[in-house]
Design a protein that fits this description.
Layout (H helix, E strand, L loop, with lengths): L2 H8 L1 E7 L2 E9 L5 E8 L3 H9 L8 E7 L2 E7 L3 E3 H7 L4 H19 L5 E2 L8 E4 L4 E3 L6 E2 L29 H17 L10 H10 L11 H11 L32 H20 L3 E2 L2 E2 L2 H22 L17 H29 L1
Antiparallel strand pairs: 1-2, 2-3, 3-5, 4-5, 6-8, 7-10, 8-9, 11-12
Length: 368
């Protein structure tokens, strides 16, 4: 492995397995503190992840790095906080409008992939791979068996897919293409409404007709692209708008939880434990630190004021690191694809906090 690639990987400290999967790890960036996901996969997926990295989408985790290491591909991608659709469906029944809203947003996620030349097919759309985030977004989280369509090819080289959600052609009948994902979308929509696969029972009415057109065995009889499917759903449910800022289906995250400090928003026990330890260490430093001015130990309100400024600056830094209330999203430099620019952004941010603290101190000195 090249030294530059080794350096990139060395920045990510492994914290443990994700969902007890040996090939998927939770990692932390030692430079900016960002939590990410590290995945090991087949080297043949390199072109897929190269496309995802260069075509960033609000509906797909951001790809921070992809590195070829011998016969395997190492991917570092955004960690998505939230719940997958399968977990949501176990706890509650979704309304038809909620279900339609989710499928419409998946259509939006797939559109740039299907429009690529050549097209990219996900091939593994299922509730476990669809996340509803804490910020009320819908994201597809797994492209590990996605493939690039090969014009003129009769069938896929390797048979892959999840039984029930995968189109018939994924099991050797012919080559998969964008219409294979449409089959999965129809199956997911039916599954959300009835908790049954179309082969068991299909939803009734006009929506059932839409689902039926998604899941024909012959791909030529299905919707030919996700735009056609999305338009059909909009015709039936015009009130389900396309704006990602609207409340998505199935996300019942309480509003009060979203204002909790970093570490407590998801309600995940290990994250809350790490956050408690971190905050306790910070407050211990806050209480024990000594403030000096020209080698003279400050006491009283002057010392406390300096300590409070320090504490607030650290809390603000944590807020930006963990994108509290979307604050990091508003600073383009902190979201740059170039790691050097991101580091520079945090340096500038630190300098800004120090400057603001110094100005407040000077202003207070003038007043008193």
């Amino acid at each position: 492995m090249e030294l530059s690639k080794e350096y990139i990987l060395s920045q990510y400290q492994e914290l443990g397995l994700l969902n007890e999967n040996e090939n998927v790890r939770i990692v932390r960036n030692s430079i900016n503190g960002r939590i990410a996901v590290k995945k090991y996969m087949n080297i043949e997926q390199t072109a897929i992840y190269a496309f995802l990295k260069s075509h960033r989408s609000d509906f797909i985790p951001q790809i921070y790095e992809y590195i070829e290491d011998g016969r395997q591909l190492i991917v570092i991608e955004e960690y998505i906080e939230g719940r997958n659709l399968e977990d949501i469906l176990r706890e509650q029944k979704l309304t038809i409008e909620e279900s339609v809203c989710i499928v419409k947003r998946i259509c939006r996620a797939l559109y740039p992939l299907h429009m690529a030349r050549p097209s990219i097919v996900c091939r593994d759309l299922k509730p476990e791979n669809i996340m509803i985030t804490l910020q009320n977004h819908v994201k597809i989280i797994d492209f590990d068996i996605a493939r690039i369509v090969s014009p003129g090819k009769n069938r896929d080289t390797v048979v892959m897919g999840t039984e029930g959600f995968a189109a018939p052609e994924q099991f050797g009948r012919r080559q998969t293409d964008c219409r294979s994902d449409i089959y999965a979308l129809g199956t997911i929509l039916n599954y959300m409404i009835l908790r049954k696969f179309p082969v068991e029972e299909i939803a009734g009415g006009q929506l059932g007709a839409v689902i039926r057109r998604c899941v024909f065995v012959n791909p030529d009889e299905r919707f030919q692209n996700v735009e056609e499917l999305e338009r059909a759903l909009e015709t039936l449910y015009p009130s389900v708008v396309r704006k990602e800022t609207d409340k998505p289906a199935g996300d019942k995250q309480p509003k009060w939880r979203r204002i909790l400090p970093p570490g407590f928003r998801s309600g995940t026990p290990w994250k809350m434990l790490v956050a408690v330890i971190g905050y306790l260490l910070m407050f211990n430093l806050f209480l024990s630190m000594e403030i000096r001015e020209e080698d003279v130990l400050l006491t009283g309100w002057r010392a406390w004021f300096q300590k409070i400024l320090f504490l607030l600056s650290q809390l603000a830094e944590i807020g930006f690191l963990f994108n509290y209330m979307g604050c990091r999203d508003r600073v383009s430099l902190l979201n740059s694809k170039n790691i050097l620019l991101r580091v520079a952004g945090y340096v500038v941010l630190d300098f800004a906090f120090i400057t603001i603290a110094a100005l407040l101190w000077m202003f207070l000195e003038i007043l008193i």
